TrEMBL record:
The chain crosses the membrane at residues 6-27. It comes from Aromia moschata. It comes from the Eukaryota. InterPro entries: DUF4748. Keywords: Membrane, Transmembrane, Transmembrane helix. The lineage of its organism: Eukaryota, Metazoa, Ecdysozoa, Arthropoda, Hexapoda. This is Uncharacterized protein.
Length: 64
């Protein structure tokens, strides 16, 4: 039994909708993973700057 015009359009919309939702899910998962990694990096940087340090008298000069 061949599919009618409306059935083909419905199947097309279903495929487009499901693929769009799936691609959105993958993109969101990727962004969340990258955000989590960046948060971990920032946390490590923040923790590395905690503590007391001796004063340094080194002078940095700009020589060309």
């Amino acid at each position: 039994m061949p599919l009618g015009r409306d059935a083909k359009i419905g199947i097309g919309w279903a495929i487009v909708t499901v693929s769009g939702l799936f691609s959105f899910y993958l993109a969101k998962k990727s962004v969340d993973k990258r955000r989590y990694e960046n948060m971990k990096i920032r946390e490590r940087m923040r923790q590395s700057n905690v503590g007391e340090y001796e004063q340094s008298y080194r002078k940095f000069s700009t020589t060309s």
